């Protein structure tokens, strides 16, 4: 039995709003455009989510119970520079100025169209170079001279394509999809080798060693976390 793999994901988005209906609409359109989403009902939930996971974009409402959007962004900015799109029912200049001062990247006034949100998400992804889709519609991760075409199962090092064993592709792409997150060894074995994997966990060490060798000068993108697992620096 093999574990179910997640499909190609363009970006991982945190949607924070106290209106479940609005979150649902944004989530539906985001999924249609190839994004993965996580929901939060208030600022505190958003802050906690950012402690647990890494996101490519946050969509944050201003007026929420427990902790408002501005305060949540301030807390998130102490540990992360993830792009933030702020949502507000008010369009006063003061709110926009305050939003940009606390580190918001874009500002959208309610009511808005889902198409507008998707366009703004696309513009930010293009600007930041996060999890981009190329002209052929392939999900591609590129950093310095390293490129992984996840859709086509191709890896390039300094412009030259390198061949990997099937399981090494699975391992590399799993790490990339969870970039900047500390992943325990057990989780890697479960997700890459399958739920019923009962083999020696040295299998992971062997594959990781071979993968790093294949990545050449970019092997340092994979960080070993002693006593825990690994992290891909994206």
Describe the protein in words.
With 234 residues, this protein is α/β, with parallel strands linked by helices. It has two domains: 12-132, 3-Layer(aba) Sandwich (Rossmann fold), CATH 3.40.50; 134-232, Orthogonal Bundle (Arc Repressor Mutant, subunit A), CATH 1.10.10.10. The protein is built from eight helices and 13 strands. The strands form three sheets. A five-stranded parallel sheet has the order 2-1-3-4-5, sandwiched between helices. Helix 2 runs parallel beside helix 3. The longest helix is centred in the middle third of the chain and has 15 residues, at 114-128. The radius of gyration is 19 Å and the shape is elongated. The protein starts with 11 loop residues before the first strand and ends with a strand. The model is unreliable at 1-8 (pLDDT under 50).
Quick tags:
Rossmann fold; Arc Repressor Mutant, subunit A; five-stranded parallel β-sheet; five-stranded antiparallel β-sheet; 8 helices; 22% strand; disordered N terminus
Estimated helix fraction: 25-40%
Dominant shape: elongated
User: Averaged pLDDT, please?
Assistant: 84
CATH superfamily of the largest domain: Response regulator
Biggest sheet strand order reads 2-1-3-4-5
**Order of H and E elements:** EHEHEHEHEHEEEEEHEHHEE
Q: How many β-strands, per DSSP? A: 13
Q: Structural class per helix/strand content?
A: alpha/beta
The Cα radius of gyration reads 19 Å
* CATH architecture assignment of the largest domain: 3-Layer(aba) Sandwich
The largest β sheet comes out as: 5 strands, parallel
């Amino acid at each position: 039995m093999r574990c179910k793999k997640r499909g190609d994901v363009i970006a991982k988005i945190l949607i924070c709003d106290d209106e479940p209906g609005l979150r649902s609409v944004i989530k539906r359109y985001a999924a249609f455009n190839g994004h993965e989403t996580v929901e939060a009902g208030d600022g505190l939930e958003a802050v906690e989510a950012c402690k647990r996971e890494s996101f490519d974009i946050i969509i944050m409402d201003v007026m929420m119970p427990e902790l408002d959007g501005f305060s949540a962004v301030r807390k998130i900015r102490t540990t992360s520079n993830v792009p933030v799109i702020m949502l507000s029912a008010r369009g006063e200049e003061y709110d926009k100025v305050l939003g940009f001062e606390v580190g918001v990247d874009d500002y959208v006034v309610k009511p808005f169209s889902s198409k507008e949100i998707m366009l703004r998400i696309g513009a930010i992804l293009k600007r930041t170079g996060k999890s981009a889709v190329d002209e052929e519609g392939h999900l591609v991760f590129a950093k310095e001279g390293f490129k992984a075409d996840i859709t086509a199962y191709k890896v390039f090092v300094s412009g030259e394509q390198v061949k990997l064993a099937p399981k090494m592709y699975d391992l590399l792409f799993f790490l990339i999809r969870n970039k900047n997150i500390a992943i325990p060894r057990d989780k890697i074995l479960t997700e890459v080798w399958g739920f019923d994997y009962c083999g020696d966990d040295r299998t992971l060490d062997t594959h990781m060693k071979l993968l790093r060798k294949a990545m050449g000068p970019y092997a340092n993108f994979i960080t070993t976390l002693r006593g825990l697992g690994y992290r891909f620096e994206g």
